[in-house]
Q: What sequence folds into this?
């Protein structure tokens, strides 16, 4: 694949990421933000009760902290910026991975290759770390442990990506001996065992308060998973379609009378 094709695919990957980001933004706004608002309301109610229920509080100690960024701005422009930048960035990365993987992971066309890559990326980059360290809404988590929790999450994500790459290489190495089907089964099994060991050895973090509504926690985590699924699924579909149109253009239809238009 020459440099011009790679460059064109990179641009298309970023456009695909932008389009997928728009879809994910719709899901985040209508499915995720109501749960965030509910969690923030619980947090504010808890803080209000704690502050005004403290008999020993100073007379001037009950004022609210000044809000640096308004909630309305966070849930609109801030949300859109974050998701769209995320989509464009990972769209570019996915396009480069697509350039490397096309023709190397089986007899798949551009559409199937892009969709397969996006599915594997969703699993390795998000689902595997998510199952060990799921996201939490506001009012959940100790502020003093945020650095530790962030480090453990990214460690799990890096391990997951590395293990996915190792499993892919293992499958390709075993394929000539075991055949494609059994080599794939062996690679998936090895990946699952390695991830299970990582889950077992990495520390467990559970900072959900006993009085936090379980239904709200479930809805928040489910919406977070839905956002990522729409983002990566849309990225795979859009990138596959754009790559197919670039790499396998349709034949130019002939003009009436059988004449083929001259190339310009």
A:
């Amino acid at each position: 694949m020459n440099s011009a094709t790679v460059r064109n695919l990179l641009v298309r990957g970023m456009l695909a990421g932008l389009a997928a980001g728009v879809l994910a933004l719709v899901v985040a706004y209508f499915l995720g933000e109501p749960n965030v608002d509910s969690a923030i309301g619980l947090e504010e109610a808890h803080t209000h009760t704690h502050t005004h229920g403290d008999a020993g509080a100073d007379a001037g100690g009950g004022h609210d902290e000044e809000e640096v960024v308004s909630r309305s701005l966070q849930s609109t422009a801030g949300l859109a910026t974050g998701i769209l930048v995320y989509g464009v960035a990972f769209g570019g990365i996915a396009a480069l991975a697509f350039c490397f993987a096309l023709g190397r992971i089986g007899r798949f066309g551009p559409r199937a290759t892009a969709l397969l890559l996006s599915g594997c990326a969703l699993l390795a980059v998000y689902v595997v770390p998510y199952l060990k360290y799921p996201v939490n809404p506001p009012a959940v988590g100790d502020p003093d442990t945020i650095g530790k929790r962030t480090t453990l999450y990214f460690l799990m994500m890096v391990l997951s990506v590395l293990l996915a790459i190792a499993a892919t290489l293992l499958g390709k190495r075993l394929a000539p001996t075991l055949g494609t089907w059994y080599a794939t089964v062996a690679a998936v099994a090895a990946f699952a065992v390695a991830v299970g060991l990582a889950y077992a050895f990495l520390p467990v973090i559970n900072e959900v308060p006993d009085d936090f509504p379980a239904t709200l926690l479930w809805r928040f985590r489910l919406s977070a998973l839905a956002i990522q699924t729409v983002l990566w699924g849309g990225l795979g579909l859009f990138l596959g379609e754009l790559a197919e149109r670039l790499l396998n253009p349709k034949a130019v239809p002939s003009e009436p009378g059988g004449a083929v238009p001259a190339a310009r």
